Structures are given as C-alpha cells and as structure tokens.
C-alpha cells in the first residue's frame, strides 16, 4: 500500500470517528418572553430546580410527573457542559453545568415559561 493511500485511509477513518468524539448537545435554544432559554428537541422550555444537588436530582415520584426529566440514554455521552446523571430509579437524565434539566407539564407549547419561579422561586428557566 502506498503512503498516499495509507494517508487517505487514515484521514477517512479519522473523519468517520469525529462525530462520535464531539456529540451534539441534547438541547436547543429557544426565544421566550423572558429571553433565550434552553429547550428540548420539541422546543419546550427547560428548567432547573434549586433543591437538586450537583448532578443529583431531588425531583422524584409525583414531582417528576409534574416536571418530566430531560431523558438521556445510557449510551449518551457528555457534550459541551452537558452530563448524563443517574436518577434514583436508575434511569438517565441530562444535566447542564451540573444542574438536572426538566420540562414542565403545564407548558403546552414552545415558548411557554409558566414554570419559572414556581414553588416559591425554586424552579428556574435553564439559560444557555
């Protein structure tokens, strides 16, 4: 095999592996009345909860029914400030800068921010 073919093959393999090395973030940025916020793939606003610990969710049971988690798969990899945390039930959830991410069940359409300030200010919009 000539050195130019070997180089071309090495480059092709490197480029094929590049997307795996730099996973896309699990969120998007959306515009709301309160400014730009992180959103899920459907454009729904994401929130953080003051009672969560660093990379630990305190929102379980009925709380997680009202505040659905931004689910991650076991195979998902950390990307640009995002990490995958393990919840009490063993499922996976995305966190941004150590803060677990949630949607709010009462938000009905992209751009809704009805959960911001909920529970005496414990819930906050997740900002990019």
TrEMBL record:
Signal peptide positions on this chain: 1-23
InterPro entries (alphabetical): Lipoprotein_repeat, UCP029720
Protein's UniProt name: Lipoprotein with Yx(FWY)xxD motif
PANTHER family in UniProt: BLL4220 PROTEIN
UniProt keyword terms in alphabetical order: Signal
């Amino acid at each position: 095999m000539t050195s130019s073919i070997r180089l071309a093959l090495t480059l092709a393999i490197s480029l094929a592996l590049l997307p795996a090395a730099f996973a896309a973030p699990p969120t998007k940025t959306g515009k709301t009345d309160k400014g730009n916020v992180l959103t899920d793939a459907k454009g729904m606003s994401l929130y953080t909860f003051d009672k969560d610990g660093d990379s630990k969710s305190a929102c379980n049971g009925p709380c997680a029914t009202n505040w659905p988690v931004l689910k991650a798969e076991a195979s998902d990899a950390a990307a640009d400030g995002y990490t995958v945390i393990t919840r009490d039930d063993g499922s996976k959830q995305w966190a941004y800068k150590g803060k677990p991410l949630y949607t709010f069940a009462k938000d009905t359409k992209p751009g809704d921010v009805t959960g911001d300030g909920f529970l005496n200010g414990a819930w906050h919009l997740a900002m990019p």
